[in-house]
Write a structure and sequence with these properties.
The structure is a homodimer. In chain A, about 75% of the residues lie in helices and about 0% in strands. With about 200 residues, chain A is an all-alpha fold. Chain A has two domains: about 5-60, Homeodomain-like (Arc Repressor Mutant, subunit A); about 65-195, Tetracycline Repressor, domain 2. In chain A, helix 2 packs across helix 3 (about 40-45), helix 5 packs parallel to helix 8 and helix 8 crosses helix 9. At the A-B interface, helix 8, helix 9 and helix 10 of A face helix 8, helix 9 and helix 10 of B. The structure holds a DNA duplex (18 and 18 nucleotides).
DNA sequence: GTCTATAGTGCGATAGAC
DNA sequence: GTCTATCGCACTATAGAC
């Protein structure tokens, strides 16, 4: 057996499948069990069968492990907004984006999201990081609308309104006693916004 | 001249009027001139004729000196929302709040606000602090609406939409080449939101 | 790795307003 | 005299320079 093959086998566990995902899962479990502050990065890495150094190769800091999915969410949103028919009004394009984001807000993920939200709710630094992520979602949407030819302040305003709908729909989606699906919550919240501002 | 008298003269400014306001003004000038990071709290205090220790009696940290007015803003908003006639729809109460906030957004303050915003725009930590302040405004408004009997999610949604209007109006108000007054910007942004979500 | 500058805290002393 | 804003000092924590 060649050294190359032996090395490859040696890496099987180290390079086990989805290292990043294992880190996310381990972090979520430990943050939930012992609290964010009481969990060290070393513990997260160990539980995932990795080292602290590897954790920081995947995530900029201890918080970021909880927000790894937000880039994916942003891409889903932006792609759907950008891909809406040019005949679609700005708010329709944004609505399409919010609905497209539902790919990650399915029933299998709901328990996971609930646990994640309760971790975030319990810690000021994590709540702040979430505000930053939301703000960056809003500017990504606004940029996309501008690229579709929507001028300011309409682009900014539509994006901010869209994020307002997102926040409300998401809060309801992770609410303990709620079983309504993502797309119904988005449509319902958007419809309610229309009524409220009318 | 005795040492005691010299000491007394040195302390003349100690009980000068509006120590907090002097600290705010000094901080604004130094942050604008040399940048937030390149300014020390000791320098701010010295320029205000005070000591570092006194700075921290008035402000929890170096950032907070730029956000001292935000409690005042929140009170203006909340009071006006709470004081709206009970016949007023939620969005009307919020609009009344936004217009009432205009007390602090007058022409004399515009230059000051512009400088403040350019300082905040130049620094990530300050932008984050601003997000936090905005989020706390939104929840204060939502709470006030709930106290008026507006149920969730309408209260949350109206508050978030109101803050979206606030952000856009404020951005336009501090925009370099803009001379439109606060109330026109609020009414205009709100009217545009209505059109956009319709 | 040590050294330095700065942020931020705790507590007791003091100066001046009342 | 009381009350409180301010000061002085000693401290910890941490980020950056070297």
């Amino acid at each position: 057996m060649s050294a190359a093959v032996i090395a490859m086998i040696g890496r099987m566990t180290r390079w086990g499948p989805d290292a990043k995902g294992r880190l996310v899962q381990s972090a979520l479990e430990l943050y939930a069990k012992r609290g964010y502050d009481q969990t060290t990065v070393a513990e997260i890495a160990e539980r995932a069968g990795l080292t602290e150094r590897t954790f920081f190769r995947h995530f900029a800091d201890k918080k970021e492990v909880l927000f790894a999915g937000s880039n994916n969410l942003r891409d889903l949103l932006v792609t759907a907004v950008a891909g809406s028919p040019s005949s679609a009004a700005p708010i329709e394009a944004v609505a399409a984006g919010l609905l497209a984001a539902g790919v990650v807000f399915n029933e299998e993920r709901r328990a996971h999201s609930r646990r994640r939200q309760s971790i975030i709710a319990a810690n000021a630094e994590l709540r702040e990081r979430e505000l930053i992520k939301m703000a960056s979602l809003a500017s990504a949407i606004a940029d996309t609308l501008r690229r579709r030819g929507v001028p300011d302040p309409a682009a900014r305003l539509t994006a901010e309104a869209g994020i307002a709908v997102f926040r409300v729909a998401f809060d309801r989606w992770v609410d303990a006693d709620n079983e309504v699906g993502w797309s119904d919550l988005v449509r319902g919240s958007l419809a309610e916004l229309k009524v409220l501002v009318a």
